[in-house]
Amino acid sequence: MDALVLFRAYAAITTLLVVTYLAWPFELRQWPFLAVSLAALPAVVAALRRAPAGSRAPWWLMLAAMVLYNIGNLIWIWLATVGGRATGDGSVADVLFSVGGALLLAGALVLVRRRGRGDIGGVIDAVITAVALGGVLWDAVLLPAYLAQHLSPLREVAAFLDLLVLSGTLGAMLRISWLPAGRSASVRLFAAGIAITLAGKIVAPLAVDADGVRADWTNMWYLAAYAALGCAALHPSVATVVTVRQAPDDDLSRGRLSFLGAMLALTPLVGGGRAILGLPVDGELIALSSAALVPLVMVRIARLAAQRRAAEQALHRLATRDALTGLPNRAACLDLLATTLPVVVTASPTSPRTTRPSDGSPAVGASPATAASGDQLAVLFCDLDGFKPVNDRLGHAAGDELLVAVADRLRGCVREGDLVSRFGGDEFVLVCHGPGAVTAVSDRIAAMTTEPFVAGGEQVRIGVSVGAAGARAGDTVDDLVRRADLAMYEAKKSKSVGTLSLVLAA
């Protein structure tokens, strides 16, 4: 049978049984009740068969919950039949209902964690709001009803915690099921089942008579919850319930922050107001409710702080890194020079302008000792020779591939503490420190050019023209970079592709 046809048939039959529940004779009402509750079992099994492998945890937990619920229902009906209408409540069946409820909530939380992991901030806000409203509901509505029934403190605490957990889970489910992007009917029906369950937990204690007997019409809420959860399991969208959807921007605006602050203060304010009016107040449980919200708020604040740090780091990377090669960009290079240059003390004499042959021998016009002594800080301005023909012939994608390959090799040419940056286009600037830096680094660049590069699936050869300038007393950043740039153009005049030419600036 088609999945949509099966879903519609199941929804129609279970809805009919729910709305006609009170029309059945009282002694026969256990049959429609069992029909709806037991029908949820094959529905969840069908969800397990259709859900993708690795995303079945919510449905396994729901199946275990439905098994315990139905065993509890059978015990409850048997006790009610044998011992009277009131006997079913407060029996061993309640233990099964509690465990089944915990499993159902665990399934909902697994669903929230997987589907809502792209919207953690929104989910936390929804949970804070729902728990705060649940605390108010307890203090203003349910507490007077439980006090009138003279429940034991243990059962009162259990009921209170059940309410808070259900409220928080419902808030999270509503958040992930009503986001504008990627709405899922199965998720909405799951949320509806949790909401109806919560509604049943609220109306049940309000419908207990003086003899402690709960009105039979309250069972319709639980029947409706079974029907909604079964529909969630049978809907064709069940296969996508754990798919992560695009979440809205997590913008904790002033209005949203004010609303969350109001939610935090709501429960204590209502409790304080009731105390002033002389109405019954459960101070311990109100304090527990407020304390439960504090970790959520702290997690929310911690996430916002982490997101802000990540955003600042991302902006810093964008501002200081070349997007293509990952090298520091022009701005980062100039900033480094502006920081380093004032503390550099140059001890070497000014070298005359010289040209270094492509075979790696010392530069013409300078002795090996002069070339080796170098400056404490030197800038090597590198321009690729033969890059434009490669880019024009093979295309921009191949040109980008070549630039990335050159950047990777240049990283291996410098020493620890040196900097390789992409100045723009096919220009790279290296900042080197220490005696002999220019000679050592230029030797490595010369060796780098002897091996071909791969770009666009072809082997290509390029050369590098390098202009080197050492820092001198009184230099500005512009002075140092300009001398290296001019030296690079001198080197380029006698350049052939596939070799290296080095000029030391005067």
Automatic annotation (TrEMBL):
Positions with biased composition (Low complexity): 347-358
Record-annotated membrane-spanning stretches: 7-24, 30-48, 60-79, 91-112, 124-147, 159-177, 189-208, 220-245, 257-279
Entries under PROSITE patterns matching the protein: GGDEF (PS50887)
UniProt xrefs under SUPFAM superfamilies: Nucleotide cyclase
Listed CDD domains: GGDEF
Residue intervals of the GGDEF domain: 375-506
Descriptive protein name: GGDEF domain-containing protein
Originating organism: Actinoplanes ianthinogenes
